[in-house]
Amino acid sequence: MRRSLLGLLAAGAALLVAGCSPIPDGAVEAQALECPPGEEGCDDIRPIGPGGSVEFDMGNFWFEITDTAAVTGEIEVTANNVEDGYHNVEVLGAAAGSFMGGPDGDAILGADGGETGTGEVELFPGEWTVICNVPGHRAAGMETTLTVYATEDELEAAIEAGETDVDRDEELARS
Ligand SMILES: [Cu+2]
Predict the structure, then answer these.
(1) What is the per-residue pLDDT across 20-40, written as a single tens digit (0 to 9) for each?
(2) Centre of ligand 1 from the C-alpha of residue 132, in Å
(3) CA angle 49, 89, 161 (to 5 degrees)
(4) For residues 88 and 110, is the Cβ–Cβ distance under 8 A?
(5) By C-alpha distance, which of 63, 67, 76 is closest to 122?
(6) How far is the CA of 147 from the centre of ligand 1 (A)?
(7) Of 16, 62, 71, 124, which has the fewest CB atoms closer than 10 Å, so is most exposed?
């Protein structure tokens, strides 16, 4: 019932704009079916893709991406805390529900000095800001940018162009 009403609306909108607007038919249809975030019955819009992985080293007070194969979808995050003192990894603005939560708040992982933390985060393609959310740590330098690629082909192209720090040996061993 709901679906067919939307269909009628889409058809009506298409008739209204036919011949007098540069809006393509597909765009009109997409607009009519749009589901405002937070509306009852609407599913969250989540990233769909093969996913991938990224690995950080972190310390007082810095991040270094040591290996990245981050493709949109569910991304496995590993962070080696190579110094003393607790640090964590938070991806600002990542999809709700992708965090571990608990004592680390919005961080996807946390690790004490000398330890390695792991977690997962769902990310759309693009440039994401990564911080440590311990008060004062971001300002002290714990902020970096993570690039998430739309497809594995895009990631491969970036690797070939030398734009990422991906570990080729590990990639080849996996395939
Ligand atoms: Cu920190």
Answers:
(1) 456 556 555 444 445 555 667
(2) 5
(3) 55
(4) yes
(5) 76
(6) 21
(7) 16
Going from the Cα of 79 to the center of ligand 1, the distance in angstroms, rounded, reads: 12
Low-confidence ranges of the chain (pLDDT < 70): 1-39, 41-44, 95-102, 165-175
Which amino acid, residue 125?
P
Q: 52-174: which CATH topology?
A: Immunoglobulin-like (2.60.40)
Distance 141 CA to ligand 1 centre (A): 9
Contacts of 57 (CB under 8 A, 6+ apart): 63, 64, 66, 79, 80, 82
Start and end residues for every CATH 2.60.40.420 domain found in the chain: 52-174
> Which amino acid appears at position 95 of this protein?
A
Residue-averaged pLDDT of the chain: 78
